[in-house]
Amino acid sequence: MKALNIAATGMKAQELNVEVISNNIANMRTTGFKRQRPDFQDLLYQDLRRPGTTTSATGTQVPAGLEIGLGVRTAATPRVMSQGDVVGTESQLDLAIRGDGFFRIQLPDGRTAYTRDGSFERDANGTLVTVDGYQVQPGIVIPENTISLTINSEGTVQATLQNGQDAVELGQIDLARFVNPVGLEGLGDNLYVATAASGDEQVGNAGQEGFGTLLQGYLEQANVNAVAEMSDLIAAQRAYEMNARVVSAADEMLSATSNLR
After folding, report:
1. Euclidean distance between CA atoms 89 and 93, whole angstroms
2. Which one, of 88, 107, 109, 108, lies nearest residue 98 by Cα?
3. What is the pTM assigned to this prediction?
4. pLDDT of residue 251
5. Is 211 in contact with 104 (CB distance < 8 Å)?
């Protein structure tokens, strides 16, 4: 009986759906996190009678065919790259991107990673780094005698030093954007890397056409809506229960058939 296998594919799909939802909920407080959603596709169909089949010598045709679907599968779990809420912090090294773009991060193996998490610090050498110590490109070094730091909306970094001289420009923070940001591969630690699907990085300054602007002293929160996620979780649970009920019904039918005398 095909119903058993069909319902099993439905249960597997909803199990993955719940896993995606649980990951979204778990990362509700993760800075710069982008929620995922599962995309489902129906499987192949078994044609028992194809539409348009000729039924007589005069050329009459079947207006509707007879086909049985074989279930469902998860096709993808794309990230939703919508803007998260921006909240103020008390750190002058915190940055939020309002609009499109990613911060460029130098990984220890030489690769470039990308993130929306702007909770930066400075290391022992004064270099601007992530919380894991990875350098923020193109490499901003903050002097030891800096008393205040200013980062404008275009990413220009200026420091006021203890000697009271005019603000010294330290450099400019680059942003990267992609033709298809959904195609980025997640590494964990709030980092992504480019893939063939995302396309090559397009590097520019904040505020340029196609790039967002920077907000100093702010961080972007996850774009997870708790109410929507709970609603989706309930719907996934009900769908799983209905598929399980189909398995039970199919089992009862097979049991009835086997008990025929």
Report:
1. 10
2. 88
3. 0.85
4. 79
5. no
Exposed, middle or buried by CB within 10 Å (0-12, 13-18, 19+), for 31? buried
Token reading at 22: 């649980």
Contact at 8 Å (CB) between 215 and 140? Answer: no
Rounded CA separation 205/195 (Å): 22
Write out 105-153 in H/E/C secondary structure: EECCCCCEEEECCCECEECCCCEEECCCCCEECCCCECCCCEEEEEECC
* Each residue's pLDDT tens digit, 244-261: 999 888 878 888 877 776
- Write down how long the chain is: 261
Q: Are 184 and 192 in contact (CB under 8 A)?
A: yes
As given in the structure block, the two tokens for residue 100 are 């499109």
Count Cβ atoms below 10 Å from residue 33 Cβ, excluding itself: 23
Ranges of the chain with pLDDT below 50: none
Q: Which residue's entry shows tokens 């759906």? A: 17
Please report which helix (H) or strand (E) contains residue 256, including its range: helix 226-258
pLDDT 10s digits, 154-194: 999 999 988 767 788 999 999 999 999 999 999 999 999 99
Max intra-chain CA distance, the chain: 101
